[in-house]
Specification:
two-stranded antiparallel ribbon; Arc Repressor Mutant, subunit A; DNA-binding; homotetramer; mainly alpha; 5 helices
Chain lengths: 129, 129, 129, 129
DNA sequence: GTGGTCTAGACCACG
DNA sequence: GTGGTCTAGACCACG
């Protein structure tokens, strides 16, 4: 279920965040579903509990998961979209950098477009799988 | 010509790298053109010369710019595309993360597609502007 | 284990790079083995941490070592050979310059051949010691 | 006759030194032959006269060329070998670094041996062509 | 504790 | 004037 890349430049806690969001979008994790505890997940992926904890805190801040005292951590019932304009701007910059790198890697627009569509479909396009 | 965001999470030297690639793709910087010296650019963007130097070194390693001893730094004549498969995989991951964030931000596929096309056109799509 | 020559014309960070590659080839450093931290090595060889850091960064770029976030730096598992033709050309030039200097120093072909063989054997000839 | 690589990491004055030694070893430049003046050579290779001057000074110091006041610069009559042990040690280090790089580039001993022999023969092996 | 980034500034080789 | 190397040291993210 869970693959983390030790050697990646992307911080492990960020990999966890993206992975959980991805699993949510793909319908593998469902609303209200219980997540592994910090200790369980850190054991599963061989990471420091602090690292998992940091990921969970950030996910909670974003409304993706919820902690219920004494009961554990759960996927949120609703998928919160954050229509924060600053957030949109950040994504646009992410896309701009990706496009620059892509052109330098010799990728064509149709190629990236097909990747984009493929990813969107794999993730259900937000249609709350 | 050159805007650097102090408060960004993206490191200054990385911002410089992307900016120079962007200006190259948009045709603002042309093949063989002389770049500002390390000291000049660091004065322009109010950064430390070492930071600019690090960006220039990485750009040289990527074949984007060239250093000629005692003469300064120049845009490379040819735009090197790097058909390195590892590099393509890294870009695909970049795109995957962007899509996850985009869906969570409530963006639709058509919206991102139009952003993508817009960016590609703005950057000449590698058609060596 | 680690000797750096202060007075050499070869930059300290380059000496570190060659030394680590040499120790790897001689089997002193083994795949997956933990390297001294930047701070430790800089203390060992009495150099600035930044200098060691620069060497480590270049070694990582070449695939010789790997950095794992917050865990330290490790020898890569596999020895990456880089069959980059530009790289081969650079080595041939290195050899050409060495031969010119050798002839001017009055060295004969058999002498250099025996040095070459000796070095190759000492380094295991890439047979992944 | 003379090729200098602007973009090489090897300093231009060092390229000139190696080139003149190479031409001498290959018999293109002969003992006692007149060399182009500093100004002529700097014009030929589009370099700064100071750069050529530095190369000539170093070549003279090594006994490869001779300056005769008011007459110009000439190849030395005899090929001076310098059996300086420090010099031999430096060449051995040069060879060691080359071998390390070669193994990392996936080159085999026979390959380098054949390169070595080839170069030696091309340069007359010091047999004062 | 670990490496990454950045500043400040020195010194030097090269051109 | 140009970039390359190095020192000294701060601050921070990550684990």
């Amino acid at each position: 279920m869970f693959q983390i890349d030790d050697k990646s430049n992307v911080a492990i806690y960020e990999q966890i965040i993206w992975k959980i969001k991805e699993l949510r979008l793909r319908g593998v994790l469902r609303p209200g579903e219980k997540l592994p505890s910090v200790r369980e997940l850190s054991a599963m992926i061989i990471a420091n509990p602090n690292t998992v904890s940091k990921a969970y805190q950030e996910l909670e801040r974003q409304g993706v998961i919820e902690t219920r005292q004494g009961k554990g951590t759960f996927m949120a019932e609703a998928m919160s979209n954050m229509p924060d304009p600053r957030y949109r701007a950040a994504i646009k910059e992410q896309l701009q950098r990706m496009v620059i790198d892509a052109i330098y890697a010799g990728l064509s627009l149709p190629e990236i477009q097909s990747w984009l569509q493929e990813e969107f479909e794999k993730l259900g396009g937000g249609k709350d799988a």
